[in-house]
Design brief:
Blueprint lengths: L3 E3 L9 E7 L12 E7 L2 H11 L5 H23 L11 E5 L7 E5 L15 H20 L1 H4 L7 H22 L6 H8 L7 H11 L5 E3 L8 E3 L5 E4 L6 E3 L3 H6 L12 H5 L1 H9 L4
Antiparallel strand pairs: 1-2, 2-3, 3-5, 4-5, 6-9, 7-8
Length: about 290
């Protein structure tokens, strides 16, 4: 084993400690990786972020439980994908995968050292947007075909955290409105349709997706610019950080990713709106 180095200023993610490990081999085989990424559950960053954004202090017990749940979800998702003979999605190759119950929970994965992330402010180009939608649709098709994905449920420990999540979400909304009452006045609409109607709306919605009462597919759960790695300006290398994978709406993730393009005419073009259908049919083996 060679040097172990951080990935830079973002080496400590919200839910994990991330390190690059250089590998030294006694043989010269092209299929062996020169380096891997080691991801270890670690909640210090998310603990601090939640406390600052909500104005409250999260209990260490809740943080430990959250760490266990999120690592378990990501570990389980990667294991499902790795069982496929042909990888159905652009996700990293996994070399070692120890779940939350192991003595040392860890995921050792492919190092996308040559890839880059798109600046969040700059946003995605149209080519990149179409490439992302391609992967979202393929994920949904895979989730409908794979029996383990169909049966994918949140760990039972998540039920213990829902009331905490709901309370913190409300506090974050209130703090945001207080800091930018004019620019973020749209949050009032969200609050009126959620917390003002039913204080337990989040738990009920999650349960409806999990039980099948609402139509759902397996979704990434945290698909933003930092979790999509690019080889070039139109080719995705991999989509990472599946800790928040869960059953959710088949369409909301499409609108979330494309939100920056709502004002652009081509977003609503026939070409874009029709784009997912043939991909879904082909992925499901339906004749066009």
């Amino acid at each position: 084993m060679g040097p172990v180095t951080p990935l830079g200023k973002d080496a400590t993610g919200y839910m994990s400690l991330i390190r690059r490990v250089q590998l030294e081999w006694s043989c010269n085989r092209s299929e062996l990786p020169n380096s891997v990424i080691v991801k270890i559950p670690f909640t210090a960053a998310v603990h601090d972020a939640l406390d600052k954004s909500s104005g409250t202090s999260s209990s260490q017990e809740d943080m430990n439980l959250l760490q266990k749940v999120f690592h378990s979800v990501e570990s389980r998702f990667y294991r499902i994908v790795e069982e496929e003979k042909q990888k159905p999605l652009l996700v990293p190759t996994i070399y070692a995968n120890e779940d939350s119950d192991a003595d040392q929970p860890v995921i050792v994965m492919q190092d996308y050292q040559s890839c880059y992330v798109v600046d969040l402010v700059q946003g995605f180009s149209e080519k990149q947007l179409f490439a992302i939608v391609d992967q979202i649709v393929k994920l949904q098709a895979f989730a409908m075909k794979n029996k383990k994905c169909v049966a994918f449920q949140q760990p039972p420990e998540m039920n213990q955290l829902m009331s905490t999540f709901t309370a913190q979400c409300k506090l974050i909304c209130l703090n945001l409105m207080g800091s930018e009452p004019v620019r973020l006045s749209c949050i009032k609409i969200f609050m009126a349709n959620t917390f003002d109607r039913d204080s337990d709306w989040m738990t009920k919605m999650v349960n409806e997706y999990e039980s099948g009462e609402r139509p759902s597919v397996l979704t990434h759960g945290d698909l933003w610019a930092a979790n999509i790695l690019w080889w070039d300006n139109s080719s995705i290398g991999g989509m990472v950080d599946w800790q928040a994978a869960h059953r959710g709406s088949p369409v909301i993730v499409l609108y979330t990713v494309a939100a920056k393009y709502l004002a652009r005419p081509r977003f609503w073009s026939t070409e874009f709106l029709a784009f997912p259908s043939p991909i879904m049919k082909a992925s499901l083996g339906i004749l066009l």
